[in-house]
Amino acid sequence: MNPEIEAQLGLGRGTLEGPASAWLELLHPFERDRYRAVLDTMLEQRRGRINQEFRLRAVDGHYFWFLMKARPVVGVDGEVIRIVGTLSDVTEEKTSEERLLHDAVHDNLTGLPNRELFFDRLEAALTFAQTDPRIRPTVICIDIDSFRQVNESIGLSAGDSILLTCRVA
Q1: How many CB atoms lie within 10 A of CB 89?
Q2: Is pTM, for the whole model, over 0.85?
Q3: Can you name the residues that pair with 56 across neighbouring β-strands?
Q4: pLDDT tens, 4-63?
Q5: At 126, which helix (H) or strand (E)?
Q6: Cα 48 to Cα 7: distance, rounded to the nearest angstrom
Q7: What are the start-end ranges of the H helices in 18-114?
Q8: 126, 119 Cβ separation under 8 angstroms
């Protein structure tokens, strides 16, 4: 194990060495079952490759994203002796990816959900409502009268400032 990763997580040297199953307590709860299933499958089949992203918890409670690429080493008796591979920090890439996904469905000025997300959620609510006649989705539309005139008369920057002020209030 690279000592830099252990230092990044605030762990003592050698903490991550040993069986990969010992990492379960450091894994994000959402990824433990998938991680365990991949390891179990590899041990049972005595072959395969792991190419998996997961989060490990640092001592301070913060999670870092890692990519594990590994394969089993099988002994002469056909049993898995160990699993060898690489562990790479991909936190920056995952953060960028999450930011892009967020930006795709949120307004870049206000940070509020955009029209695409609205229509996606509306469609989901309507689909869900078809399963139970008691569910009756409702849409409330709030329109700021003559806001276009604000943009045209005092400029887009002023209009943006008003929108941001309304969002904070």
Answers
A1: 16
A2: no
A3: 27, 64
A4: 888 899 888 888 887 777 788 889 999 989 888 888 888 888 888 888 999 999 999 999
A5: helix 115-129
A6: 30
A7: 32-45, 91-104
A8: no
